[in-house]
Amino acid sequence: MTMTDHSIIGLCYVLITVLLLICLKASNIATHFKIGLIVLMSSFYIVTWEQVRNLKGWSTFSPLPESFRVIWIHIREDNKSTGEAGKIYYWIRALDEVGLPSRPPRVHHIPWNLEAAELAETAKARLEAGEVLNGRLSNNALIRQEAQSEQSMNDKDPLRAGEDQKQPQFEFITVAPPSLPTKIIPIQ
Question: What does the alpha-carbon distance between residue 9 and residue 53 come to, in Å, rounded to a whole number?
């Protein structure tokens, strides 16, 4: 969040507080109830502010875009002691129509499974070796998703249809280094 975002959030809080005070001043509610509402609203702002501050930088639940530049990958396996499910985190930038990164980096995560973890581990090793990688939804995943959607349309139980869906599979492609024009060295 930028400073402007913080200012806008602060102004929204002030506006809502002013509206509450105007409504309470015009109402015939008991004074102790008015004070209670003001304290409740103030504590709500403090809790909301802390929660928004804690959300900055968390990964998104939204699916990965069809094509993206991979910045980094982090693999977290299932934790047997706590029972926490594993996840694979992709720090990516979405690509525009030309194939260049167009948006700021964003962290996405997908559930951990062996196939996705092996693919991510291979891509991570390539990143560590200095390769620049783009990712894109593989054709096999598109065909699998279409077949699953047709199958789920035929299923009568909508809850069961969502259980069998697999995560989309991505393929990682090495980005060729940019071709720069030759430099002409002036003669001295």
Answer: 12
**C-alpha angle 151/157/160, rounded to 5°?**
75
Tell if the pTM clears 0.70, that is, is over it.
Answer: no
| pLDDT tens per residue, range 87-134 | 999 999 999 888 889 888 889 888 998 888 999 999 999 999 999 999
Radius of gyration of the chain (CA): 25
Quick one: CA dihedral 5, 6, 11, 12, positive or negative?
Answer: positive
Q: Are residues 127 and 160 in the same domain?
A: yes
For the record, the structure tokens of 4 come out as 């402007």
Lowest-pLDDT range of 52-61, 152-161, 171-180 = 152-161
Listed residue (102, 104, 106, 108) closest to 120, CA to CA:
108
Do both 127 and 81 map to the same domain? yes
- Average pLDDT rounded to a whole number, residues 40-57: 74
Q: How far apart are CA 120 and CA 70, in angstroms?
A: 11
Written as one letter, the residue type at 37 is L
What are the pLDDT digits (tens) for 84-95?
Answer: 899 999 999 999
Q: Do residue 160 and residue 82 come from a single domain?
A: yes
Instruction: Provide the greatest CA pair distance for the chain.
Output: 90
Q: Are residues 45 and 135 in the same domain?
A: no
